[in-house]
Amino acid sequence: MNKTGTRKIETERLILRRFVIEDADDMFNGWCNDPEVSKYLTWPPHGSVEVTKSLLNAWIPEYEKGDYFNWVMELKETGKIIGNISVVRVREDIGEALIGYCMTREYWGNGYMPEALKAVIDYLFDVADMNRVCATHDVNNPKSGRVMQKAGMKYEGTLRQSGLNMQGICDSVCYSVIRSDREKQPEIS
Length: 189
Ligand SMILES: CC(C)(COP(=O)(O)OP(=O)(O)OC[C@H]1O[C@@H](n2cnc3c(N)ncnc32)[C@H](O)[C@@H]1OP(=O)(O)O)[C@@H](O)C(=O)NCCC(=O)NCCS
What we know:
This protein is of the alpha+beta class.
């Protein structure tokens, strides 16, 4: 892999950029304090903007590292921030990135996350030189699976009781793209 870290990415409707501390209020009011958003995630709603600020204070220095990939999604049209997409685990030995994402509820259903995920997958292969990009979701959260499908990821299987989130232990549905998929099929639809 190339240790490129988090660089700005532009898509048709979005700018994916690094978080800054000034994002705390919008992040808290948008997605960090909504139990519907965190239902299938590993963390509870923040409860107070101070929690969001301390998270950002932990994240921002990590941007110095070349293997840290964490973007805030900003809507080009309004400049509003609407969600987060990041690499939650890197395995450098096999060039693997595991992706996670979440978004403010009022923006769901507009295809924003598939648009962001496609762009992040391109970045991780073309700029960061990964060999495998993967993501998993709780079997009871199929809308996240739709995002993975729309971004061109392939279903790999379901691992029984291998996930843990705010609902407890869950079956985990696994998707991936590997470099050779892209060589065979450069235009992912
Ligand atoms: C999963 C998530 C990122 C989807 O992002 P998105 O930009 O809304 O994605 P899409 O617009 O492509 O919609 C995906 C699916 O969500 C469902 N959906 C769409 N609008 C919805 C709405 N208003 N409310 C609930 N579900 C909706 C649909 O099933 C849709 O699939 P379809 O296009 O085949 O009908 C978003 O729902 C979210 O942030 N959820 C909470 C966090 C989360 O679960 N993260 C993933 C953990 S693995």
